[in-house]
Amino acid sequence: MNSKIEIREVTKRYHAGHVVEALKTIDLDIKEGEFVCLVGPSGCGKSTLLRMLAGLNLPSEGAINIHAKGGRSVPTSTVFQNYNVFPWKTIEANVRFGLRLAGIPRAEAAERSSKWLAKMGLAEFAKAYPPALSGGMLQRVAIARALAVDPEVLLLDEPFAALDPQTRRLMQEELLSLWQENRRTVVLVTHSLQEAILLGDRVVVMSARPGRIIADLKVPFERPRSPDIYHDPAFAALDQKIWGLLHDEVQRSFNGEKNQ
Amino acid sequence: MNQSDQLQFTTPARVVRFVPGPAERDPLGWSRKARLQERMLSITTPILFFVLWELTARMGWLDARFFPAPTRIAAAGMEMVQSGIFVSDLKASVTRVLLGFGLGTVFGLLVALGLGLSRLSRAAFDPFLSALYTVPKLALLPLLLLIFGLGELPTVLLVAMTVFFLVWITCMEAVLAVPVSYRETAISFGANAWEMFIHVTWPALLPQLFVAMRLAIGTAVLVIVGVEFVQADVGVGYRIWNSWSLFRADQMYVGICTVAILGYVLTTLVRYAGVLALPWLSKRGHGAGH
């Protein structure tokens, strides 16, 4: 099967007085409908890679191809760590935002946004402004906004990192069932190995800066999955294995930050 | 929904491709080029303006009585420099502006702190001062002249009053906007009132103080010119007004250009002072993010 996303020898450097190499020769293929999780130490460039998929940064070398089928969906949409829900728009207007930009007619946009508000349990807050909502609810708004445009690829940049652990777990389960309902291509950047294993088809492990791919692991659990897999010995084994790969890298990134 | 809607919002299959752009292929060259571009443009615009002016004036398309050619204005400027009136005008105006600006900033800051830190004094004075703020300061000039007589004091006071309100409003809002979490952090470490001020309130309001000062110094120049129109016998504003009554348009333009450059220089000085005083806001504070 052909790849949905091809990342070919992508290198990213920043010039901030001195040259910082964020990513070094990344090669990655992601198939249609695949859920790929990127994990790695802080500053390893995994968010940079995601931002490049979103077109927010361009690679310094190499190329990224996203094969868009077209039709009535957009190629990509992104959920950010800090929600980035516009405080000056109501919840409903936030969810409608992407639809308006995609040129969806007003009536259909209203219908689709109210569908997503209902699905995410936000219907009664449609007319509220974001500051009235909790972090967990704001992240639901951000996810609704991203999914309302029916993206071919959903990009998630540490979407649950700012949430408390209980809310976070709930949101993970919600995302899991949302995805299993409609299996689109997803790239998720996360610090949480459990999250990566619970949600992903593959876990891509990256090294400390400059970020390289040091492992690309298949998650052995069948779909549809449930959080019950937490209790599976294979879960713990995979978690242990990834942590084994990451431990030295995290240490290295930690020391690197100290020396800067 | 009808068929045409369906077609209109359907996009064809395509490959979304991200490859290095010119900025990524040669980052250093690109940023050097961008800086050069900005600098060239900032110089080109005024030059172009004056060249066009010169040409149209020489062609006789502009009435030379009202729009003398820039070279004519420059000659008048040289004359004024040589006779010494340029320097004495500039010195008088700059002194008034700086005195008024300093006075207004200090009082504005003190009142901002007093009101920002005390709920009761805010309740007592905020509505009163807000009402005064809306009084056009120039309307008070006759009153000041009546009280203090002719001389420098009413002029300086008028500038100070203008500056005062800008600094007071901006800084009081800044004091009120200091995040509670920073206060609580300081309290948890046992900060007393003075320590709270030095470690939290003051640095937190400093950025807004510089914003206020940038606005205020420009407004101070504006006010001083207005005051000098009516009440001065030396100063750039006086010279502009006086040249009008003598029908010396060239001297008027020298005055106008001087005011523009003075405003720009003073604003730039305040801005650089701000960069030095606020190291935590500078972009070079720390290396790249991720």
Distance between the termini of chain A: 44 Å
Shape of chain B: flat
Share of helix of chain A, binned: 25-40%
Biggest sheet of chain B: strands, sense, closure? none
| Percent strand of chain B | under 5%
Count all strands of chain A and give the number.
9
Task: Calculate the mean pLDDT score of chain A and round it.
Answer: 89
The secondary-structure class of chain B comes to mainly alpha
Q: Sketch the topology of chain B as an H/E string, one letter per element.
A: HEHHHHHHHHHHH
What oligomeric state do these chains adopt? heterodimer
For the sheet with most strands of chain A, the description reads:
6 strands, mixed
| Pattern of helices and strands of chain A | EEEHEEHHHEHEHEEH
Low-confidence stretches of chain B: 1-7, 285-290
List the helices and strands and how they pair.
The complex is a heterodimer of chains A (260) and B (290).
Chain A (H helix, E strand, L loop, with lengths): L2 E14 L1 E14 L3 E5 L6 H8 L7 E8 L7 E4 L11 H11 L4 H14 L15 H14 L4 E5 L7 H17 L3 E5 L3 H7 L2 E5 L6 E6 L14 H27 L1
Parallel strand pairs in A: 3-7, 3-8, 5-6, 6-7
Antiparallel strand pairs in A: 1-2, 1-4, 8-9
Helix pairs in contact in A: 2-3, 2-4, 3-4
Chain B lengths: L2 H6 L5 E5 L3 H4 L1 H33 L10 H14 L1 H33 L1 H15 L7 H8 L3 H25 L3 H9 L4 H38 L5 H10 L3 H29 L13
Helix pairs in contact in B: 4-12, 5-6, 5-8, 5-10, 5-11, 7-8, 8-10, 9-10, 10-11, 10-12, 11-12
Q: What report would you give on this structure?
A:
- The complex is a heterodimer of chains A (260) and B (290).
- Chain A has 260 residues and is α/β, with parallel strands linked by helices.
- Helices cover 38% and strands 25% of the residues of chain A.
- Chain A has helices spanning 46-53, 91-101, 106-119, 135-148, 165-181, 193-199, 233-259; strands at residues 3-16, 18-31, 35-39, 61-68, 76-79, 153-157, 185-189, 202-206, 213-218.
- In chain A, strands 5-6-7-3-8-9 form a six-stranded mixed β-sheet, sandwiched between helices. In chain A, strands 2-1-4 form a three-stranded antiparallel β-sheet, covered by helices on one side.
- In chain A, helix 2 (91-101) crosses helix 3 (106-119) and helix 3 (106-119) packs across helix 4 (135-148).
- The longest helix of chain A is centred in the last third of the chain and has 27 residues, at 233-259.
- The termini of chain A are far apart.
- Chain B is built from twelve helices and one strand.
- With 290 residues, chain B is an all-alpha fold.
- In chain B, 77% of the residues lie in helices and 2% in strands.
- In chain B, helix 5 (85-117) runs antiparallel to helix 10 and helix 7 crosses helix 8.
- Chains A and B meet through strand 1, strand 2, helix 1 and strand 4 of A and helix 1, strand 1, helix 2 and helix 3 of B.
- Strand 4 of chain A pairs antiparallel with strand 1 (14-18) of chain B.
